[in-house]
């Protein structure tokens, strides 16, 4: 019931925000406002498509960005949320990139961190079962839908007014972070009770009928210890991994072809619509089986996946979605290669060592709820940074009398 109420609250908030955008945009015409407030021919104004790429040199900005990027990647991959909500403000406010280039570089950082986390998790056994720590069935279920959502979201982000995107981000991030925080508190309390029970003297008892009662905390069959190589081979399922790669390649080909087509042409819509049956074809077989960023991690926890598996699976899926975006941005020449390589190196190291230290800490403290606390903190920090920047930019747009409604899809792409 709590999950249904939370989903209903988010949908209600989203609907109210979008409805208000229609009401606001209805008070004026886009074409008239656009022509009225267009910059004069002689004025010098930086267009939103202009690239602002600072030089890669050692200074306080790079050092501060490296520190924030390292911590954001470390905690983001542990929580299974990536950290894009921290990287984009960091790259725009501190380093000085334009928004689109910052978004592209953030995808490079997420790809590097998630790839190193995937490599690390291949050497980690499942905490309580004889199954891989990566849930491939859930990955096959969510990956096609996540990649479809990314492709549609990129197109709609140009149509939606900037202030509405900011409002939706704040609602979503605050909702998921608060939900995750309360879930972490519940898990912490349960772990405290369990630790107290485990600390009691372990004895064998006989009931009133003289039957032997076996201590339930001691397994009847002890788990067989595996070497790191055996754990790696056990976690790596080639058939399902290759299927995920095939889905990734199919989406990449569709996006590359669609980028070369005229927006709103016949073939453009054919390829756009073709993504839906292709996605359902990939998802449907997994529904018969056992089964991003800021949605996937909390969603996996919501459906009952334990934190360690949720974190590993979410970063695994993010590796595919972020790499798809990186390839697209590379073809569009949207980010400087030296910066991308440097930030990816930072993220790769952060992803590995973040997983290493937090996993060791969880084993030492016997509290998997730490992952959920980290997830909640990263999402909340992203809500603050993205919200502050979004509100500041929206206020500037209001002062400049810029159009605040929906844009035409075909002309705005």
TrEMBL record:
Superkingdom assignment: Eukaryota
Signal peptide interval: 1-17
Membrane topology note: Multi-pass membrane protein
Subcellular location: Membrane
Transmembrane parts of this sequence: 62-95, 141-174, 241-257, 339-358, 370-391
Record keywords, A-Z: Membrane, Signal, Transmembrane, Transmembrane helix
GO cellular component: Cul4A-RING E3 ubiquitin ligase complex; membrane
GO annotation, biological process: protein ubiquitination
InterPro entries (UniProt xref): TM_pro_TauE-like (IPR002781)
Alphabetized PANTHER family for the sequence: CEREBLON, SULFITE EXPORTER TAUE_SAFE FAMILY PROTEIN 4
Family indicated by similarity: Belongs to the 4-toluene sulfonate uptake permease (TSUP) (TC 2.A.102) family.
Name of this protein: Sulfite exporter TauE/SafE family protein
Organism, as annotated: Deinandra increscens subsp. villosa
């Amino acid at each position: 019931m709590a999950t249904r109420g939370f989903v209903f609250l988010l949908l209600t908030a989203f609907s109210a925000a979008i409805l208000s955008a229609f009401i606001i945009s209805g008070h004026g015409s886009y074409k008239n406002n656009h022509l009225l407030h267009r910059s004069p021919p002689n004025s010098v104004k930086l267009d939103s498509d202009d690239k602002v790429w600072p030089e890669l040199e050692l200074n306080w900005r790079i050092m501060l960005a490296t520190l924030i990027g390292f911590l954001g990647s470390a905690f983001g991959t542990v929580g299974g949320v990536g950290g894009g909500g921290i990287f984009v403000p960091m790259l725009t406010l501190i380093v000085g990139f334009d928004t689109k280039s910052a978004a592209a570089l953030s995808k490079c950082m997420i790809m590097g961190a998630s790839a190193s986390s995937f490599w690390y998790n291949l050497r980690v056994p499942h905490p309580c079962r004889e199954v891989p720590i990566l849930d491939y069935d859930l990955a096959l279920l969510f990956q096609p839908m996540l990649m479809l959502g990314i492709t549609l979201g990129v197109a709609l982000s140009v149509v939606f007014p900037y202030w509405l995107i900011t409002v939706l981000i704040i609602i979503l991030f605050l909702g998921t972070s608060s939900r995750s925080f309360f879930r972490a508190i519940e898990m912490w309390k349960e772990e405290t009770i369990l630790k107290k029970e485990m600390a009691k003297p372990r004895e064998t008892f006989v009931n009133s009928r003289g039957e032997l009662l076996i201590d339930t905390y001691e397994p009847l069959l002890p788990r067989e210890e595996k070497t790191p190589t055996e754990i790696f081979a056990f976690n790596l399922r080639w058939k399902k991994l290759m299927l995920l790669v095939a889905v990734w390649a199919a989406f990449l080909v569709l996006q590359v072809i669609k980028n070369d087509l005229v927006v709103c042409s016949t073939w453009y819509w054919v390829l756009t619509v073709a993504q839906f049956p292709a996605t359902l074809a990939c998802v449907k077989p997994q529904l018969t089986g056992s089964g991003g960023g800021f949605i996937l991690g909390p969603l996996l926890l919501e459906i009952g996946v334990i934190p360690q598996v949720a974190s590993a699976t979410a970063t695994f899926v993010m590796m595919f979605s972020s790499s798809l975006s990186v390839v697209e941005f590379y073809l569009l020449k949207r980010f400087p290669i030296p910066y991308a390589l440097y930030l990816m190196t930072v993220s790769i190291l952060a992803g590995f060592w973040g997983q290493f230290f937090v996993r060791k800490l969880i084993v030492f403290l016997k509290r998997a709820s730490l992952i959920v606390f980290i997830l909640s903190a990263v999402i909340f920090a992203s809500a603050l940074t993205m919200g502050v920047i979004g509100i500041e930019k929206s206020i500037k747009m209001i002062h400049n009398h810029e159009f605040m409604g929906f844009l035409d899809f075909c002309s705005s792409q």
